[in-house]
Design goal:
The chain has 9 helices and 19 strands. The protein is of the alpha+beta class.
């Protein structure tokens, strides 16, 4: 929302470049040039804003309209273009002719004799500045400019008005000076003795549009750089599994629900401790914003540190709950969690559930083959089912003195264990309100296993099919972790 511009104080006529004289016949006051002012060739309909009494930034005493190039007012027809002329020629040799914008509306002209007055007149409705390069700085030279810097005034104006288009005015025999002004930051340069209404009007419109284009390009570049930095940051926050020395195969898929994000509230990790135990974890912070993503990263890092320190089961989850309670923004934030500690021999595991869906395990079928109609035998498809979930505890952050029992489960000699977040099972299945659910997910994975999909291919197919069943991208974060043990 644009910031309101305060009403300007009365400016003496000699400062504004125009004085008002009362008609001898008692009629309306007529504008007459003040000593040293810019001669105006504008017809009465042309707005010449001097900032005098009973005149606000609109030039007609009404409500102020802020139509600067940065808020688009002058470009969509809501306000005319406004030009601020900065020059101090006492002879008044600079002639600003009648100016019209692209819509045929008069371009308003303000005049400043020095940088102090220019700073006061530089309100939001000014789109372009015409600066005489012969203007002296009057002790206002930029601090970083050399004493003999001929463009010190221009540099000061550019610093004073970084969002405004600037036209440099110079003598015709000093074209190099004008070109140097463009290199410093002006949008264009003009020759003092070649000014006419058509040239100046076109130069103003060109300078405003070029400044808008440059500003948009700069913002786009900054946005791309921020996006790249955020992407590098988020990629760095995703876990790298520590499974050196383990025979288990690892695969994972991650899809945040937020648009153009790489990290969501879901989190996972896998580490192997010196005793040979493989610890896997997956969790979900309620919500989908960046705060939830940051909290998920904190919980994941805390889980890894506590696991490597030797904690597991109820002791580990109780400590994680303390971390959550200290780091969350409000008491309504909670997180679900599933941890699995796989014994060094790979045949059994300890399972803890904190309000989280139970993992899915698939094993080879006990029968060796399925006999088809032609009598040929094919390997039986693996059996997929959920691990026990009856003895789980509440989500982290819900109950202050909660407990999370650790139950032992038998895995067998050859298996595939899939940990997932609820984003995989809460997608819709068609146009109705029916959700996929855990049963639907188990059936889907069984079918994909029967097709021979394993590892990364299995996870990719599962996530893609859930998205297709939903009829488009999933609104919730999705994280899936797969550990395989081949006998």
């Amino acid at each position: 929302m644009p910031v309101p511009v305060p009403r300007q104080r009365a400016i003496p006529a000699v400062e504004g470049g125009q004085a008002r004289a009362a008609s001898s016949s008692g009629g309306p006051a007529q504008a007459v040039p003040a000593p040293g002012a810019l001669p105006s060739q504008a017809p009465p309909s042309t707005s010449r804003d001097t900032g005098g009494d009973n005149c606000d930034d609109t030039g007609h005493g009404g409500e102020a309209h802020h139509g600067g190039f940065h808020n688009g007012g002058a470009q969509n027809g809501t306000a005319p273009l406004t030009l601020l002329v900065i020059e101090d020629d006492p002879a008044g040799s600079l002639n600003v002719p009648t100016l019209l914008d692209s819509a045929g509306k008069p371009i308003r002209v303000r005049t400043a004799r020095n940088l102090t007055e220019a700073e006061r007149l530089l309100t939001d409705d000014v789109q372009c500045i015409l600066l005489d390069l012969a203007l002296t700085t009057g002790g206002r030279t930029a601090a970083d400019a050399e004493p003999d810097d001929e463009l010190a005034t221009l540099k000061h104006v550019l610093r004073l008005a970084p969002r405004h288009a600037v036209l440099a005015l110079t003598a015709s025999e000093d074209a190099e000076h004008g070109a140097e002004a463009v290199r410093v930051g002006a949008q264009d340069y003009l020759f003092r003795d070649e000014l006419d209404s058509r040239l100046l009007s076109r130069a103003i419109r060109y300078a405003v549009e070029r400044k808008r284009s440059d500003t948009a390009e700069r913002r786009l570049t900054e946005s791309k750089l921020r996006a790249q930095e955020n992407a590098r940051l988020e990629r760095g926050l995703l876990p790298t599994p520590l499974l050196e020395g383990s025979s288990l195969r690892f695969a994972a898929r991650y899809r945040p629900g937020r648009s153009r994000a790489l990290l969501g509230g879901d989190f996972y990790d896998t580490v192997r401790t010196p005793d040979g135990t493989v610890h896997a974890m997956i969790g979900d912070v309620c919500g989908h914003g960046p705060d939830e993503a940051a909290l998920g990263v904190e919980l994941r890092i805390a889980w890894r540190a506590l696991t490597l320190a030797g904690l597991c089961g109820d002791q580990l989850l109780s400590t994680l709950q303390q971390v959550l309670e200290h780091e969350r923004d409000n008491d309504e934030i909670f997180a679900t969690l599933c941890t699995v500690d796989i014994a060094p021999d790979g045949r059994r595991a300890g399972l803890c559930l904190a309000g989280h869906p139970a993992p899915l395990i698939s094993r080879p079928a006990r029968s060796r083959a399925v006999v088809g109609a032609d009598g040929a035998g094919d390997p039986a498809p693996p059996v997929a089912e959920l691990l026990p979930y009856e003895n789980g505890g509440p989500a982290l952050g819900l109950l202050p003195n909660a407990r999370w029992p650790r139950q032992q489960v038998e895995l067998g000699g050859e298996w595939s264990l899939m940990l997932y977040t609820d984003g995989l099972i809460e997608g819709r299945t068609g146009e109705g309100r029916e959700r996929l659910g855990q049963d639907g997910m188990v059936d889907m994975v069984r079918r994909q296993l029967a097709q021979g999909l394993r590892g990364e291919e299995l996870l990719r197919a599962a996530v893609n099919e859930v998205r297709d069943l939903n009829g488009g991208e999933l609104t919730d974060d999705v994280a899936v972790l797969l550990l395989d043990r081949v006998a």
